[in-house]
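Supplementary Text 2. Reproducibility record for the structural model of the 440-residue chain.

All settings were left at their defaults, and a single model was retained for analysis rather than an ensemble. We include the record here because the model underlies the residue-level annotations in Supplementary Table 4.
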Amino acid sequence: MLVSNRETWTRPKLLLGKRRRSYSSSMFAASCARALRCRGKLRQTSAMCVLAAVSWAAFYVFLTRKIFVEDKDVSRAASVGLPVLSQVFGGRDRLAVDRNHEKTPGDGRCEEQTKIVFISVHMAKGDVVTNILQRFGDLRNLTFVLPKEEGDENTGWPQCFQTNHMLPSRTGSYDILCNHAVYNPRIMNLVMPKAPYATILRRPETQFPALFHRYHLAQRMGILASDPLKEFLLQPGEYIHRFSSLASERALLQNPQAYDLGLDPENFEDEDAMQDLIRDMETNFHLVMIAEYMDESLVLLKRQMCWTLDDIVYFEPGFQVKSDVPDHPTTDALHAQLRKWNNVDVILYQHFSKVLWKKIHDAGPVFQEEVAEFRRKNAVVRGYCLRERDARRRRHRDGEPAEGHAPPINSQLCEKIDTPVSEYSNLLRSRPDHYLRNEL
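Retained model, structure tokens:
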């Protein structure tokens, strides 16, 4: 399903003017423990053979006709780019790829999973995955691990995740953790036992400049040079020293992806600590996605969780795309400096990119067919939602199809996709049947 029919969804108001918290150096440490054939003589058995042959031929014609009709229906839908949305047609979508031994909910081969811990790494397209998880859980009335403070998108970050960072649920159990949190397996396993883990990494040469721009680090460090990122990389140690007492800035200024995954900055040059982190991730994470291959990563997630393509549709909202543009174009020389400064992030990215592509290779050619179908479905959703949000030229009643062969996508879906993580968290926390207001 794509759109909830439980109630009319209204987008929560963005809380403005919220006082920004500061963190002391004592709060900074991120290390978190881590065929039938008729045989015989014709003269003796001719009658039996003829009867068997006729019976088999009749059965073969019936079976072939049934398969042809089913394949024809699916092919017709694919030929016009029509992603059969489950809510629209009252059931799960039936794609050709779903009949090729691919796990599909409701077919007896797997069961939809509703629990997951997602470590959202900063500026690695994690907000796209978080939004998918928020919509998935919202439609199923699941319970989230949410930040204790309203309007916050961080569950304790940049501190190591602890139970006093989250809003307590009425039942004491949780289904999804997807807000920014520093990976702490010991505590997270207590909060969500047996839940699968996933995260996402991005090429450091693009992730770090985007982060540097998004969080206005040059302004916060007082860098007045025309190219502040280049200036920072000329003497990063000097700027790190200036912000040694501010955990949030320090956590973003070097190997921010490794930091979010629990590696203490003191161990950024420790080869053994780096390898320990990789081994921990290989053991405990069911999937490490790669931002540059988002579609492939999401289809792997869909398969891992036994979801449908409807569950993972997405496009990057305007506020995310705008914030992802660096202040200045980067050069090969700057990339070399970025790789040297973010050495652990480079190692993590290179290692888990190989792991991802091994999974894709092992999935076989049917996987690429599914990715292609996913992209067609996303294109329809994106086209409708961009017209709904930006052009506003055509207004469609909920459930009314857009131009061409687009499915009847509800405008609520578009608005939910376009909602920032903190605002969606406010919506989720407003459900009184899920959360307590007292502290843990």
